Amino acid sequence: MRIYQKRDLIQKAYECPTMTKQELGAWAKVAFKLKRAPAQTTISDILRKAPAILSEAYGDGKCRKPLEVTSLALEEKLWAWIQAVEAQNVCLSRELIKMKAQDLQKELCDAWELDFSDGWLSGFQRRHALRYRKRHGEAASADTAAVYLGR
Asked: CA 16, CA 24: separation in Å to the nearest integer?
């Protein structure tokens, strides 16, 4: 179940406190068009974790689990750097973003377990809605400093 569905289930449980977990599961199956009703243990877990699920920090509701960021300070600094560089119309590559992330990690020293894999970078790009396409031909080979001086 997605986060917004869990929140709706919690709301239904609060509105109808006499409903059993089995009835809540049957309601969820119909309301969310699920293939099968959630198990009673799943319903119990959702209701037990209700305060956390209802909090803003749990997520936006589109995914199944909340996104966990290992180093919030690193993410914020890297995102600020990307925005500043893109404001100067510089095309960033995935490799360049990883290199900057490694430099920032050395500065911050708060997330030693990060290895900046392709999966980490893909997750970072998804969280910040970044999309990069590989440039081919002249656009990829041009030196940005030379282009800037030539304008």
From this structure: 9
